[in-house]
Amino acid sequence: MYLRNRKGFTLVELMVVIAILAILMGVLAVAVMGPWRDANANLDRLNMAKLASTLQAAAMSNSNRGKLNSAAFKEASGRAFWEQCFKQKLLDSDMLTKVVSLGSKTGDLPAKPEITDGVGEFTQQNCSYTSPLGGKLLETMGSMGRKRTFVLSFDSRNWNNYQDKQGVLVSWSDGEQALYVDEVTAANEFGVTKEEWANPAEHIIGRKGPWARTFEERGR
């Protein structure tokens, strides 16, 4: 009587190995995802600050005043506003990556650079942020003191990008610094209820507190 040479794993052994690998991958994912999301959140904040300051400089240019008073800009907000900014060259193609959140849960990606030449489409997935109404851009950006407001914010599609740690990214009208506002801060400082926070498109964006003058695309 003798033992047969084993040439492979049994099905049970393979299942055990696969289960162990799955557990290890899960542990690794948890360890990596936190710092990765923090890095994306920080870069989003820097990108929004850059976008806001570049937009302000572009809006103050005399050569752009006529464009901002055009019919195309007058009622444009959200996606439509940013599309006009690129097509009418208030912003160059370098800013295409700045209007998209790295933490987007809806698959947002930058538009192709050709959009600044009027070629191709600028879709909803090319934009993660709200905007002022085009016709009131300068007025909104000039809001100071007690009248200060948000110029940019995550739109409702991206509202929950960093809810687990940071909150909703916004940019004030009286400074270049972008920051995150969480649900507790929104409640304490701006009177936003839990129900309103859960449905920003209906209750917050373009409607309440410092969000009252930053909008998603009209008709959404």
Please render the helix and strand layout as text:
Blueprint: H1 11-60, H2 62-68, H3 71-74, H4 79-87, H5 137-141, E1 150-153, E2 168-172, E3 178-181, H6 183-190, H7 194-198, H8 200-203
Antiparallel strand pairs: 1-2, 2-3
Report on this model:
About 35% of the residues are buried. This protein has eight helices and three strands; from the N terminus they run H-H-H-H-H-E-E-E-H-H-H. The protein is globular. The chain has one domain. It is about 40% helix and about 5% strand. It has a three-stranded antiparallel sheet with strand order 1-2-3. The chain is mainly alpha-helical.
TL;DR of this structure?
The chain is mainly alpha-helical. Helices cover 42% and strands 6% of the residues. It has helices spanning 11-60, 62-68, 71-74, 79-87, 137-141, 183-190, 194-198, 200-203; strands at residues 150-153, 168-172, 178-181.
Q: How many H/I helical runs?
A: 8
Gap between N and C termini, in Å? 79 Å
Number of domains: 1
Largest sheet: 3 strands, antiparallel
Fraction in beta strands: 5-15%
The gyration radius over C-alpha positions equals: 23 Å
Mean pLDDT: 88
How many strands appear in the DSSP assignment? 3
Q: Which residues form runs of ≥5 with pLDDT under 50?
A: none
Order of neighbouring strands in the sheet with most strands: 1-2-3
Which sequence of SSEs, written as H and E, runs from N to C?
HHHHHEEEHHH
What structural class is derived from the secondary structure elements?
mainly alpha
State the share of residues found in helices, binned by percent. Answer: 40-55%
Shape: globular
